Amino acid sequence: MLAFGALLVVVAAGVGEVFSSPLQVPLKAPAIKPRKLHGRFLQVTDMHPDLFYVVRSSQETACHRKKSKKKKVEKSGYYGTPFSECDSPLRLTNFTLDYLDKKWTSEVDFVIWTGDNARHDNDPKLPRTPDEIYSLNRAVTAKMKQVFTSKGIPVVPSLGNNDVWPHVKCLL
């Protein structure tokens, strides 16, 4: 064991640089006057906006198409379809962030944003693409900046398993 420790020290001493992942930093809030602290934070997570969501479509098709193989099937709603395999229509994600902007930005000290800014890959007829994933990440980032950081509210982001390509599936 002592020999291994000495070897480790020798190897470490021979390495000129140490490589690590870059530090995770919050989205930079503009320099404005200090905000009054409220002792509250907000967590925004799992929005899963879906550019292909169709109102009154079949839940069987991830709410992407009207036709279903079954005669009687639940239809998707205007503001989304809770407890289904469908992701969120853009009107729901935008309405939610607009509501937070109007009602909550004056009440929170910071935001923890835990990702999943892209739809699930649950429609074999409409597979996700890297461009779609990255575009949705950029769009949600722009909205988060508009709603929170423009008001001096720090946002601490992290990626979700649906925000990367290829898709990361969690196996438990």
Automatic annotation (TrEMBL):
GO terms for cellular component: extracellular space; fungal-type vacuole. GO terms for biological process: polyphosphate catabolic process. It comes from the Eukaryota. Residues 1-20 form the signal peptide. The keyword Signal applies. This is Endopolyphosphatase. The gene is PPN1_0. PANTHER family: ENDOPOLYPHOSPHATASE, SPHINGOMYELIN PHOSPHODIESTERASE.
